[in-house]
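Q: I have 377 residues here and want to know how they pack in 3D. Can you give me a structure?
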Amino acid sequence: MTQPTLQPDFEGDFLLGGGAPFALESGSALPQASLHYAIYGKLNEARDNAILVCHALTGSARVADWWPDLFRDGHPLDVEKHCVLGINVLGSCYGSTGPQSVNPATGKRYGADFPVVSIRDIVRAQAELIEHLGIRQLRAVLGGSIGGMQALQWAVDYPERVAGCFSVGAAPLSAMGLALNHLQRENIRLDPAWLGGNYDPAAQPTRGLALARGLATCSYKSSALFTERFGRNPDRSGEDPRQSHAARYDVAGYLDYQGKIFNERFDANSYLVISRTMDTFDLARGHVSEADALKRIRARVLVVGISSDWLFPPADVHALAERIQNANAVCNYIELHSNHGHDAFLAEASNMRPLIEYIVQSGAPHAQEKDCVGCGA
């Protein structure tokens, strides 16, 4: 029997800067910005049991909704021991200020006028909320994909405020990753219902958004997984691609379904904004060089690559881990062998448990070690 989803002990909103404009790295500013956040468990008296979990592109502050297996009793996010925080990123459609929000300067929704937001902007906003909560140091910052980017940015920008950093399936995007994100955004913009980004939220560019999600789903999975699940089978609805141009193979039916359900829960302009945020991730920003930035890290770091990930190839993730090690930070690299592709950190969450337990609980291994002893990977 499926266990019910764990509900937050607190869920609310935080107004950044008391309502003052929030400056962005792009040179723009949000006249007023707020973050939606959720808390599971309670801070202890010393306020040293807080773990920040950063969500991926289409996730939310409600961490237990999308990473539930990590919250079971005795697992790494056991709320009897830890206070787990989830914070919705700027630009999202799940509560924090984003394209659907009303711009107080104009009285209208931002829509396509929402400015470019960087990972550094997101982390700086999170840090303001964390300080407001009276947390001087986070026990760990965890995340996969764009969440892993945030975890690494935390370790660089706030070295004294992070004890452990766990990043899975994250590195600066390659040219291939940039290309895939570009095509997803173009699918949305080419939908006649996009209307230059000024569509009514009740009349989204659903076809473009569904196509973007379908393409993204291909990049999140692997060829081996698709072969195993779908092969060359006709769509399970009974369609026969050998007899009709309109008929689909099973994999096409799956992608169409993913697009359909995505349209029910996400906003097209938010997709454009956050995918651009992913594109621009660069730890060197604000520093002389990436090496200069990485030398700031004081947290123990665990960087995880996924063998079948072609959006963030394990070679790219491993290379980033080596650069962190070369900066004399305490860093380990683990490669998970999975045919689930980039989505493995969600689809096979059980493999994340010992790795997260390691970064939350264990002492720091020597920076020259290449394997996380005892991680079970």
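Q: Anything worth noting?
A: Residues 363-377 have pLDDT under 50 and may be disordered. The radius of gyration is 21 Å.
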